[in-house]
Amino acid sequence: MSASPVSRMQFMMCAGTGCMASGSIEVKEALLKELAKRNLQDEVQIIMTGCNGFCAMGPLVVVYPDGVFYNQVKPEHAPLIVEEHVLKGRVVEKLLFKEEAAKDRVPLMRDIGFFSLQRLIVLRNRGLIDAENIDEYIARDGYAALGKVLTEMTPEDVIEEIKKSGLRGRGGGGFPTGLKWEECRRYESFPKFTICNGDEGDPGAFMDRSVMEGDPHSVLEGMAISGYAIGAEQGYIYVRAEYPLAIQRLQKAIEDARDYGLLGKDILGKGFNFDIGIYPGAGAFVCGESTALMFSIEGKRGMPRIKPPRSAEAGLWNQPTNLNNVETFANLNPIILNGADWYASIGTEGSKGTKVFALTGAVNNVGLVEVPMGTTLKTLIFDIGGGIPKKRKFKAAQIGGPSGGCIPSGSEGVEIDYESLQSAGAMMGSGGVVIMDNLTCMVDTARFFIDFCVEESCGKCVPCREGLKVMYDKLTDIVEGRGEEGDVEFLFELGHHINNTSHCGLGKSAANPVLSTIHHFRHEYDAHIRDKHCPALVCPSLIDFVVIEEKCKMCGMCFRNCPSDAIIWEKKKVARIDTEKCTKCRTCITNCKFDAIR
Ligand SMILES: Cc1cc2nc3c(=O)[nH]c(=O)nc-3n(C[C@H](O)[C@H](O)[C@H](O)COP(=O)(O)O)c2cc1C
Ligand code: SF4
Ligand code: SF4
Ligand code: SF4
Ligand code: FES
């Protein structure tokens, strides 16, 4: 990081989308004003960084050189931070992070479980550089890998090195990157293209956005290396238009790299020409599929086509094309600089390196985490994620986004790598992990993912277009109390049919959430159908909430939070629910600390 020559302290302020939305720019302005008021503006430097991955706790400020971590900072805290931390050298206790169950607050970022158990390769510059300053990227070995391949390696050497590293594509399929490049290099038709897939359509996923916003040069450098390896002179980044900050930072990074001679003609004087353009996508999930994405860049409707020919032979404008995910590209600089053996020493037999996950749902530390392949689900949920909030129980983890499957409690020991997840009935996907607690209905969850796929199906083939709608209607019948004997068998058969006969990856995996919840939670389907009861008390048509008298501690929390005045309560009296007024919104259930409502 570049500090001003006289600054003795740096405030690294998170300027990712999450922290900006919770007010980091306002905090920065308040801090600048406060520093100026005390004539400290030359002693303390404020640097705006990319996402730190802990967005729920934002706005975040990390103070260096010590690494003190402040969370949920507000503009009104600025005088306190300057007075206490800058002038008196004391940490501001109340802004330090505290785990839900812990007694004490933790001052240093490196001691917080959420950060300390991660291993950062893709996110190596997280929170450490100003994403809009190319010098800061270069100061942390940025573009050194491009320099190395152009000066010391042939394209074939680069491909061999990537093959040896064991790097597999992070976009979902896990295809070996080196093999993909090798195939593309073999075709001699020119021009060739390399494309970065930044479509990121999975609900809840923001791994790629974070890299594009926080470390855009790592993507550009990776693309230039791939261009050199396959023999392409032009790259495109396909990024969804809903990511305006990512687009803005990538655009600036491209212009700066051109100014520095790191993109454009005769890069580093080595005769290699390579440039990059940005193509904003309209946000359709199916446009993340390779062939649909290429049609979309060509200005056509984003619909998957039949393969062969594969993109390596005839992709964009029918020319040989390589497509990789954002995270795949961001891995390349460290692999080239540290060597394939170093990279292959991290992870498991079949899955090398690390993986970035978006950890969401019923977990204390929601956020973006990077862990070595082979990390157990238990470590991810309990040590890094801080466990399940409100002393509830872990029920299942949906891994792999809308095409993934769920791993139930009892299997927390499963290692997260391509093979183990598949054997456990889930998949890596692009890295979405949704944690579910005992208040989650698995039938309703499956219905949520099917609804998503119904909306996103491009409509080209019947099993996906029609089959998913039939599946959604059947699931709706079940959660609304119209389920009948035989429905589960019907769903099971239909699910396999859709998966086996759909044309592209969307339809081929769309039924997975249903098949996997039937496999692990069949009893919940049966309870909905036979007993007309939702065991997790989620499906409004199948529940009437009641207060369990023996458990009620008469605290009145439910009464104060009910939006429909449906709770009857007075001091020292057990609460009751007026079922006429109750809209079954579940607010009282989530607010009752004593589990007294069901
Ligand atoms: C419906 C669908 C959506 C996809 N969305 C994405 C996406 O958003 N990002 C991505 O990198 N790959 C996505 N993929 C996978 C890509 O088709 C492709 O395999 C990947 O970008 C290749 O890069 P990799 O080898 O680095 O993984 C999607 C696939 C399907 C079938
Ligand atoms: S499986 Fe679905 S998304 Fe894929 S081509 Fe068929 S209709 Fe379109
Ligand atoms: S919140 Fe729970 S314990 Fe408190 S009054 Fe309501 S039901 Fe009783
Ligand atoms: S479910 Fe909602 S409406 Fe019904 S009693 Fe509880 S808080 Fe009130
Ligand atoms: S945006 Fe600040 S931690 Fe993610």
Question: Compute the gyration radius: what is it?
Answer: 26 Å
Profile the largest sheet.
5 strands, mixed
Catalogue the ligands. flavin mononucleotide, iron/sulfur cluster, FE2/S2 (inorganic) cluster
Distance between the termini: 54 Å
In percent terms, what proportion of residues is strand?
A: 5-15%
Q: Structural class, from secondary structure content?
A: alpha/beta
Number of strands: 16
Q: Work out the helicity level.
A: 25-40%
State the strand order across the main sheet.
7-8-6-5-9
Q: Uncertain segments of ≥5 residues (pLDDT<50)? A: none
Give a nutshell description of this structure.
With 598 residues, the protein is an alpha/beta fold. The chain is built from 25 helices and 16 strands. The termini are far apart.
Descriptive key words:
alpha/beta; binds iron/sulfur cluster; 16 strands; binds FE2/S2 (inorganic) cluster; 39% helix; 598 residues; five-stranded mixed beta sheet
Structure, described:
With 598 residues, the chain is of the alpha/beta class. 39% of the residues lie in helices and 14% in strands. It contains 25 helices and 16 strands. The strands form four sheets. It has a five-stranded mixed beta sheet with strand order 7-8-6-5-9, sandwiched between helices. A hairpin with a 5-residue loop joins strand 12 and strand 13 (405-408). The longest helix has 19 residues, at 512-530. The chain is globular and about 80 Å long. 51% of the residues are buried. The model has no long low-confidence stretch (mean pLDDT 95). Flavin mononucleotide binds next to strand 9 and helix 22.
